[in-house]
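Q: Got a minute? One more chain.
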Amino acid sequence: MADITVADLDENSARAELAALAKALLGANAKYHGRDAPDISDADYDRLKLRNSAIEAAFPHLKRADSPSDQVGAPVQDGFGKITHAQRMMSLGNAFEDEDVADFVQGIRKYLGLGADAPLAFTAEPKIDGLSLSLRYENGRLVQAATRGDGAVGEDVLANARTIATIPDVIEGAPDLLEVRGEVYMSHADFEALNARQTERGGKVFANPRNAAAGSLRQLDAEITRARPLKFFAYAWGVVSEPLAETQMGAILRLKSLGFDTNALTACFETSARLIAHYRKIEQMRASLGYDIDGVVYKVDDLAYQARLGFRSTTPRWAIAHKFPAELAWTRLEAIDIQVGRTGALSPVARLAPVTVGGVVVSNATLHNEDYIKGLDGKGAPIREGRDIRIGDWVQVFRAGDVIPKIKDIDLEKRAAGSVAYDFPTICPECGSAAIREMGDAIRRCSGGLICPAQAVEKLKHFVSRGAFDIEGLGAKQVEMFYHDSNLTIREPADIFTLKARDATQLTKLKNRDGWGAKSADKLFDAIDERRRIGFARVLFALGLRHVGEQSAALIARHYGSWGIFLAAMDASAQKSGAAWDELLSIDGVGEVMATSLVTSFSQAAERASILRLADELTIQDEAQPGTDSPVTGKIVVFTGTLEKMTRAEAKARAEALGAKVSGSVSAKTDILIAGPGAGSKAKKAAELGVHTLDEDGWLALIAGL
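A: Always. Here it is, folded:
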């Protein structure tokens, strides 16, 4: 699977791979969480899950109902009672690089609206590799113990939990209701002793301490559990009748004072650099800790901030697990191939002598772009200490949590004496057109457009994909076939809708060709005709314009409402100036780069003619407006100044949920300006135009109760 980059997948391949990934991941969950007998490594599991997430991001319409992205753990096995968690037990998002940690911290600041100098602390604690357990105390007495299960329902293991010495049966000074969460684990020494006893008795020998701990806790006979040397670290909580503290660190100290073991390596820091430094310290100590860990968990310390940040479907926004790297490997770079994508991007791929990395045979690795090959980052600064990558080099390959293998370093001592620097092509290998690199763009792109077969085929595949026209019976394989067909050629989207008429003029009909029949041909023609009436947003997304994704296409379609109005706006914006251009830029989420891409596409003669030929074959439906019945439904609102009771992101999300259109600038079409302290030119312009202006309290009063 991983030998094919996500960008190179067609829709059918993506659908098939998602099915295979769902089967593999759900099976791995059942073996890991349900039977305590995993058959793949954690690194392999992480890679599969990230691969699944990457494909879902590229093909959101293909996301399965049983997507592993929406699942935690595994269903409860037979033999145990079931306990529904009063508060769902979540999993954690993963970070694999230092940059991921910095992005996590920056993302938290952005979401909360905190400046770079505003205090923001995080806890950092070892990520124990054991079995998650929830303990419920009522009036100081342990009354319930449950495994995580699938996050919503866990296994009742109360009798077994009572046998663990580090789990108190009675606690004093605790809230009347307290749900303590943590990890059951087994130390290295106890694990070795247990396996020695098991070998002596002819019993089961465990593969690792995690399996031993999980298998021991999930015994139907509590006396077997009692004989196993299990321990428990407390690091979190679920429902409580009163807060444990105001901070994560304070709550951990409170749990410690109640008699629970907590990890002494848990510490609090205020910068990503110090978090990473603590991670390095723990990584160096890893072999001497005496128990298994597989990373470090960072959590926002302020519990009020945690509440504001909330949760995604299966993970909290306020926490992330910084995983330790997987295995590295050295191999020879045999060739560099250039692949041309839908947008004309020339993507270099390293062809490697096959090597096993983290249990997976790797023969390809991404090389990103020509600067990366030269040893430079996107800003021109050296990476790998400026060492470039050349054909014939011995390179260090890594995967860690990355879906696509990457090259980490080069061994200059093994570089051949006659080695020459790689000369990145300036001519498209597919069509011979000039490959141009625009200022500020890290990617070199083919200028051939529609005459480039790589771009044309990929654009057609995108056009018929699920999120776009979704024409049943016309997938990537069929697109390839028709593109190269000398009679029923499909070279642009409009050709799809003339296919039936052109087939009628052929001596050899489609139904008589290999792989087709009367029924399949008629089904294809009917499926095409069903898509002649289609929504504006789907048409815009299907065109595959650079920088215009599914979400931005929906925003633009919602703003203009109809295809005709949009087309007129593109014509009026062709000079990138004037009221129409300003209106395009005012759409929240549309910047100058996307706007330029739009107007350029519609002003180029060949591309515009192709789009209009398509439009002539269609009935493009107006974009349905939000049905929310609120005072701001359909209104154009602008936020300016400092909001004190919510962040800009929260305010925008709330307004859009109520059916409003959020704009980034004030114009005569603006209905409401919400102005906080520090409002400047926008407030002045709104006053000049007579735009209704509210302060934050007025805005909250307007939408109160909705």
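A: The mean pLDDT is 87.
Q: Perfect, thanks.
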